[in-house]
Amino acid sequence: MLWVDKYRPKTLDQVMVHEDIAQNLKKLVTEQDCPHLLFYGPSGSGKKTLIMALLRQIFGSSAEKVKVENRTWKIDAGSRTIDLELTTLSSTNHIELSPSDVGFQDRYVVQEIIKDMAKTRPIDIKGKKGYKVLVLNEVDKLSREAQYSLRRTMEKYSASCRLILCCNSSSKVTEAIRSRCLNVRINAPSEEQIVKVLEFIGKKEGLQLPPGFAVRIAEKSNRSLRRAILSFETCRVQQYPFTSNQAIPPMDWEEYVSEIASDIMREQSPKKLFQVRGKLYELLINCIPSEIVLKRLLYELLKKLDEELKHEVSHWAAYYEHRMRLGQKAIFHLEAFVAKFMSIYKAFLIATFG
Amino acid sequence: MDMDIPNPDELEWLEANSHLHEEDLLELSSPFPPEEERQSPPQSPSPLNVSQAYYHKRLQSDSPDSLNLEDIITSDEKRRKIDDAGPETEEDWLRYAPPQETNAEDEQHEEEIVVDEEKIVSRFASEIEGDFIPVTAPSGGDRVYAKICRVEREERSKKLDVKSQSNGLVLEPVNVLLRRVEEDAFTKALQASSEGSSDVVLDETQMVYEQLWVDKYAPNSFTELLSVEQTNREVLLWLKQWDSRVFGSEIRSTSDDILSALRRHSSVTQHKKSSDSSFPRRSRDYRWTNVSFRNSNDQDHENSNVKGIQDLWNKTSRLTGPPEQKILLLCGPPGLGKTTLAHVAAKHCGYRVVEVNASDDRSSSTIEAKILDVVQMNSVMADSRPKCLVIDEIDGALGDGKGAVDVILKMVSAERKSGTGKENATKGEQSGRPSSKKGRKTLSLSRPVICICNDLYAPVLRPLRQVAKVHMFARPTVSRVVNRLKHICNKEGMKVGTIALTALVEYTECDIRSCLNTLQFLNKKKKTLNVLEIGSQVVGRKDMSKNAFDIWKEIFQKRKIKQERKSSCGSMCNEFDFLHSVVSNRGDYDVIFDGIYENILQLHYHDPLMQKTVKCFNSLGISDLIHQYIMRTQQMQLHAYQPPLAIIVHHLVAQAQKPNIEWPKSYQRCRTSLMERMDILRSWQNKIPPRISRHLSIKSLVEDSISPLLHILSPSTLRPVALHILSQKDRNDLAQLVSTMVSYSVTYKNIKSNPLSCNQEYEATLDASAISLDPPICDFINFKGYNSGHFVLPLAVKQVLVHEVEKQNILQVSRSVHLTDGCNKEKIDLADGKNSESNSANDRAALSTVKIETGKNKLNPNQCNPSGSTMLSNLDLSARSDVKLKSSGNAKKPCTGSTNFFDRFRKVSRKGSENTDIAVQPTTTLERDSRPVLFKFNEVCH
Questions:
Q1: Per residue, what are the HEC states of B560-574?
Q2: How high is the ipTM of this complex?
Q3: What are the chain A neighbours of B888 within 8 Å (beta carbons)?
Q4: B758 min Cα distance to partner chain A (Å)
Q5: Per residue in B542-565, pLDDT tens?
Q6: Residue after which a domain boundary falls, among B292, B316, B340
């Protein structure tokens, strides 16, 4: 088992990073008044961990007895019936799913599953909560229709079920839903917190941490706890008696992006752009989201750039990222950004060096 | 052969005057021996009389059923036509040009009857029924028509054959031609008379009576076709190849003739490219006349021809089978005469054309019956010709219409299967005596099928393209079309200048149909064609959609501006309009912009500062935004903003040189492989036990996890040595590694050497079959041109890991797991040992040792758990293991309920059920003995 999983806090009390939030949640639940919750924050900050710990707090250890199910729904939508299939994780008291997996028909899933849950409401309540919990992942990817239909069902069945929504960005969740939930923002852990966690793990594993090593990992981790712990373990595997200047293996795709960046810096021409296109395609094919590619590319380019250009380049990156999110073919906009950068950079070079 | 031919000057003069001068043109001296020759007083035929004059060369043929008769008919018709229209005088000489024949059985029969009671010689050709030749007396220039005897010597008939075959490409019977002459005269008279009358009356009468010019002047014979000679000939040749199949061997001689004719024709046209003729319709034929005229050494000419035929005779004996491709696919822009060609060629070869076009019901059920009817049935009635199926507008066949394509494909594939045998049969039949054409009935495609389409790249046609013989229709030269148009205008009495016609033809891009319709319309309105106003005049612009390649070409290539007289502003404007209409007519903006995107960087445009590129990509980006917005909101009217974006790109990057355009594939390729990868990830995520996978999304997997995971899974410290030599620390590492692999359900697997495998070159040296990670997660960091610094485990270590992981899985799930690769014997032994009790003691001993090791390995990670996280109650654990059993039971065989005893071992309390295996009982004690030691050891460790 990886350390990420091994040292994942199982209860709210064990939480190390967002202790205040954990304590609040605990208070919330123990006072028997759990509203709908909306957790949002960047990936690797511990949303899921908190949710699981919360569930455990509510339902006790039975919340961890989960089973994976491939559920199918037959939905009668007027003239036709729609077959939907979705993988769910469920225990006796909660169901966990990502409705956005079924694409634009996610509305039906949201409606149906809440009705189902309302029907099979646990009757025998002795000391336990009289409601079930539905955990919806990636709410920000839900279609607008699904969010609208969620809005109503949330209220209608609130007696029998609570929703815990989890997403990266709350701005894509409609106002209506946000107002019906208790919004819990989970920050990315600060570097100090990451260092603390790493040191804790090191102690548990009986490892000698050279001074500054954990800090370096934390710096490279992009404030993602998952990544920090994984690279910590990677370092451990590669070379155990740590040295303080030990190389921390980078993410491969980030390396690749930095290769692209240096390609771009080296030559600015349509021909080069064509080569860059091939590499960008490579990244996209390997499931790296285009926004992240653009962001990383900008980061790598900025590292190599003169001060005076940084502002302009960032501006254009934002411009093209906006377009990319509005549009459909990410590669068009990614490449447009690269072209724009090449143009700016070339003009700059000519202006500077003649 | 010796014949008197009017000299070219004379012909020119004739054509210039374009009057009827029959007297001049009928000066032929007989190429035949005098025995056939009879004298009669000279005559000067009236136009109508002469128009009846026709050559009729009766050929001696082996069978009375000879199809050559048809030829003669056609030659007559041609002659008739010639006489109709003065300008075509030289048509006479054409008869000595390409010998061609057709096979029509129905005409042949009526002909047969008449032949018997006829005059032998007459001054009037109309009095002779059957074949005859005109004979001019050497002395006085008197002319008679002599009937040709049917009994002739063998070699002469052959010679005659050559010549007579040359005539006929006109298919209309005499009476039709006659009627037409009368009609013409009548129409002219009518026009002349109605000239003075009021406009209203004129309009009405004409509306009633006038035929569309397009139909009126549609080519009736092969030589009248306007389409490019090469295509015509290939189509005809293709049809001719069916003869053996359709008509049996009767047709053999004629097929030779047609081949030789084609050959001669082509050689002539090649020779005569330079000769420029302003003759309206049959410029090519006219050239031929010139050639034969110049080629006054007749004997030589004939000899060479005969020789050529001999060659071809030999050649065609090989060619006689049905053509390789059973289907002919004609494609090209509208109005070039594809349908006309198909009809003319089929008729010419003696088929009855059955046309299925978009107006018919083309659902697969009805079409199938129809096609089968046409293609497989042989007609019962004796006089009916075999049918030839012409499927028009096949690219428009969508939805139900696809049926046609499917049915044809089905038949072709059926044909393929039995193809060779059938062909042999055909050949055997061929070489034997003539057989009746109704002899065979096959279930496959036994009649030619011609499909016609505008867009070769229509998706429906994709499968058809592979099996069909494809002919792209090229545009005829402008001058040719103009000539024909001028001729028609002359006939209709419309005054149009050549320049105006040229402009019209260019404007419509050689679309003859559109030209004719426009002209007729203008004629009706008593307007003249105005060169400058073609754009604004009511020129019939069709809703033409070009194929995507043409559009990209238009976008990337600058048009040469031929007309310098146009002002730059005007041409700019025109260009814009043109591109706009081209792009918007096609409408498939998604594909168009994809194509632009894929190809734009391959162009050689001057762009030192990349500004053009930036602008182009901006346009592309905007088009993507618009597209997405339209898709989301369904506001289709916004599509109107797409074509200008393409025009922007055109203005930025268009070059004069021809772009090298490829079909955009990479976006689709990217999407499909992205889907594949996503599926891999998703299935992997599903395999990972839920307590881990619930914390992972696919995004976080690729973004954060895979790279470190790969590092963790391949520790460089692990040495490839036997397990018992490993130090305790190494064992711990190994156990840790195995538990990680199990918890992420990653394993190594034998794979066939796969070029994509990340560590192939390493293992290729060691072993033929490589071992790589099972969910191929190392592919996800294996970018093209990227060298990841991942350590690759030695093969031996991998094998050890495979064993360990398998063991763990077996222990964890059930003993009845079927081992997939059967690679390691140990596991089989293990399973055997559990399943049957008949194993030898030795085996059991071996087993027990193995299991002890497993036990050790497994124990470690569990003991490593920090106290904080080991709070899980027994209940939880057992429940979870239950869950696991269930979840993995989906993929593997369900556990039989005898949860193995080792589970108890691995996790302290993981035993789910009670029954233990008797077979492994001995090991129990052993492991129990070793357990406390291990526990202690582990505790010391931490």
A1: CCCCCCCCHHHHHHH
A2: 0.89
A3: none
A4: 14
A5: 555 567 788 888 888 887 655 444
A6: B316
Shared domain check, B122 and B104: yes
Structural domain contains residue B691: no
Q: Which residue has the tokens 């309105």?
A: B525
* Spans of chain A, pLDDT less than 70: 32, 121-129
Q: Which of A5, A230, A347 sits opposite B692 (nearest CB)?
A: A5
B883 CB near a chain A CB, below 8 Å? yes
Mean pLDDT value across residues B602-631: 89
For residue B834, what are its two tokens? 């559990």
Nearest to B739 among A1, A96, A340 (CB): A1
Give the residue-averaged pLDDT of B202-220. Answer: 64
Distances from the Cα of A208 to the Cα of A202, A212, A244, A249, angstroms: 7, 12, 11, 19
pLDDT above 90 as % of chain B? 2
CA distance A323 to A317: 10
pLDDT at residue B169 in the model:
55
Query: Is any Cβ of chain A less than 8 angstroms from the Cβ of B728?
Result: no
Residue of A62, A198, A237, A340 best to disrupt the B interface, most CBs of B under 10 A: A237
Which residue from A5, A137, A286 is facing B677, i.e. has the nearest CB? A286
- pLDDT-based confidence at B626, cuts 50/70/90? very high
CB distance B607–A89 less than 8 Å? no
* Residue B155 CB neighbour total at 10 angstroms: 9
Whether residue B866 lies inside any domain: the answer is yes
**CB spacing of A347 vs B609 below 8 angstroms:** yes
Minimum Cα–Cα distance from A69: chain B residue: B887
State the pLDDT at residue B588.
81
Inter-chain Cβ pairs, chain A and chain B, closer than 8 A: 231
Does the pLDDT of residue B377 top 70, yes or no?
no
Question: In this structure, what token pair is assigned to residue B918?
Answer: 């008797």
Q: Mind telling me how many Å the CA of B618 is from chain A's nearest CA? A: 7
Contact A285 B711 (CB under 8 A): no
B887 interfacial to chain A (CB closer than 8 Å): yes
Compute the distance between CA of residue B618 and CA of residue B611 in angstroms, rounded to an integer. Answer: 10
Number of domains in chain B: 4
DSSP reduced 3-state for B434 = coil
**Looking at the domain assignment, is residue B623 inside a domain?**
yes
Q: In what order do the strands lie in the sheet with B143-147?
A: B121-122, B143-147, B132-136
Tell whether B553 and B460 lie within a shared domain: no
CATH classification number, A3-185, choose in 3.30.1490.20, 3.40.50.300, 3.30.1340.30, 3.40.720.10: 3.40.50.300
| Domain over A252-353 is classified CATH 1.20.272.10 | yes
By Cβ distance, the residue of A14, A253, A327 closest to B621 is A327
Q: Is residue B871 part of a domain?
A: yes
Q: DSSP letters along B209-254, please? A: HPPPHHHHT---SGGG--S-HHHHHHHHHHHHHTHHHHHGGGGHHH
Are both B22 and B160 inside the same structural domain? yes
Write the DSSP symbol of residue B557: B
Q: Could A287 and B601 be called an inter-chain contact, meaning their C-beta atoms sit closer than 8 Å?
A: no
Q: What is the residue range of B455's domain? A: 323-472
Q: Which amino acid is at B270?
A: Q
Mean pLDDT of chain B: 63
CB count in 10 Å sphere of residue A71:
16
Same domain, residue pair B378 and B294? no
Percent of chain B scoring above 70 in pLDDT: 45
For B74-88, B582-596, B599-613, B790-804, which range has the lowest pLDDT when averaged over its residues? Answer: B74-88
Residue A269 tokens read as 């021409």
B16-59: per-residue pLDDT in tens?
A: 554 444 444 444 444 444 444 444 444 444 444 444 444 444 44
Q: CA geometry: angle at B685 spanning B800 and B700, to 5°?
A: 105
Whether residue B336 sits in one domain with residue B304: no
Cα separation, B591 vs B140, in Å, equals 74
